[in-house]
Amino acid sequence: MLDAKTIETIKSTVPVLEVHGQTITKQFYQMMFKNHPELLNIFNHANQRQGKQPAALANAVYAAAAHIDRLEEILPVVKDIAQKHRALGIMPEHYPIVGENLLAAIKTVLGDAATDEIIDAWAKAYGVIADVFIGVEAEMYKDAEQQKGGWRGWRKFVVDRKVKESDVITSFYLKPEDGGDIASYKPGQYITVRVKPEGQEFTHLRHYSLSTSPGHDYYRISVKREDAVNGNPAGVVSTYLHEKINEGGILDISAPAGNFVLDQTKEIPVVLLSGGVGLTPMVSMLETLLEDGSNRDIVYIHAARCGSYHAMKEHIDKLTREHQGQLRSYHVYESPAEGESCDKTGYIDLPWLKTVADPSADFYFCGPLPFMRAINRALKEWGVPEERIHFEFFGPADSL
């Protein structure tokens, strides 16, 4: 436990963190990777380059400081981060490295304002926060390993099938090379893929949502090829999977993880909304709802650039025909090609959403950040309470 003086000192730094938080975390990552380049085998280089990871860490540090006297209030955030840590293979021995470089970054950015008292207080606070993470993650490692078909660390999977779903999305059906059972998962969870493309100095890890319901003898991920755009280079892992990994190829996978999951205990209607490759967890949830004997009314809405970018359309259309009366599905195209039909042209907006969805439903959504912000804003304007609004970011947590 932290003493009152330490808590007071930490809280006094909250306004400073609000102003300088991202500068500190950018400095932190630069220092840490310089001192421990081996950690570049774990961290997502693209998120570093785009500033997403420093921003997410800055938000986490700010939240920890603001709640330092009641850390239990940020336990849900801790658990979200810990899920990703477990999936990536973050271990207890990594925490002292992080702490040492974080304190050094605070000192470097704040200069003389970072007094010995402040640095000592943050060292104590970091120790407490790190212990919370280590404890939560230890339980997650144990659960992942001890469940039926579970494992610890990385396990080799064979690409049993590779299926092109659209111009930019391809599905990979993965079976364990050892022929054993695989861990089950909750609809909405993800697995983590580790690859080392030829010519790359470091391994690259990516989380990919499982895009089918649990209960199969395989995992399916559906990956969008991230091409170079607006000065950003092509995605290292997505292009490698699309262009180099074929049926029979081997991938390292860590056990399913994630807290963005379908609540199957409820009986109220469900509305699933996806944009682009954000359909992956939504399709898993949809298939599960239709397979588990639930009588819940379901609306599934997918937004895509146009028909050639719309993955799994035939599959969703088939499910809609087979479950008439329970499932209604709609697709919205931003710029449909000539002759293409869709239920709405442009974007999903609140006036249209009100014509197809029930405001008393549970809403789940996933997709690009602008899409998610628009959906979240529409639902709030509609008066949907926060406890019925569920979403997940691809990559580090951002703000809607």
From TrEMBL:
Positions of the catalytic residues: Y95, E137
Cofactor(s) for this UniProt protein: heme b; FAD
Keyword Oxidoreductase: yes
Cofactor: record remark: Binds 1 heme b (iron(II)-protoporphyrin IX) group per subunit.
Enzymatic class: oxidoreductase
EC number from the UniProt entry: 1.14.12.17
Binding site for FAD: Y190, F393, F394, G395, P396
Top-rank taxon, per record: Bacteria
Catalysed transformations (reactions): 2 nitric oxide + NADPH + 2 O2 = 2 nitrate + NADP(+) + H(+); 2 nitric oxide + NADH + 2 O2 = 2 nitrate + NAD(+) + H(+)
Annotated site location: Influences the redox potential of the prosthetic heme and FAD groups: K84, E392
Gene3D superfamilies named in the record: Globins (1.10.490.10), Nucleotide-binding domain of ferredoxin-NADP reductase (FNR) module (3.40.50.80), Translation factors (2.40.30.10)
CDD domains: flavohem_like_fad_nad_binding (cd06184), Yhb1-globin-like (cd14777)
Transmembrane segments: none
Annotated region described as Reductase, given as residue ranges: 149-400
Site (Involved in heme-bound ligand stabilization and O-O bond activation): Y29
Binding positions (NADP(+)): G276, V277, G278, L279, T280, P281
A molecular function (GO) term: nitric oxide dioxygenase NAD(P)H activity
Key words, A-Z: Detoxification, FAD, Flavoprotein, Heme, Iron, Metal-binding, NAD, NADP, Oxidoreductase, Oxygen transport, Transport
Residues reported in the UniProt entry to bind heme b: H85
Residues in FAD-binding FR-type domain copies: 152-263
Keyword flag Disulfide bond: no
This protein's domain notes: Consists of two distinct domains; an N-terminal heme-containing oxygen-binding domain and a C-terminal reductase domain with binding sites for FAD and NAD(P)H.
Family stated for the protein in its record: Belongs to the globin family. Two-domain flavohemoproteins subfamily.
Functional description taken from the UniProt entry: Is involved in NO detoxification in an aerobic process, termed nitric oxide dioxygenase (NOD) reaction that utilizes O(2) and NAD(P)H to convert NO to nitrate, which protects the bacterium from various noxious nitrogen compounds. Therefore, plays a central role in the inducible response to nitrosative stress.
Cited NCBIfam families: PRK13289.1
Protein name: Flavohemoprotein
Species of origin: Paenibacillus haidiansis
Gene designation per UniProt: hmpA
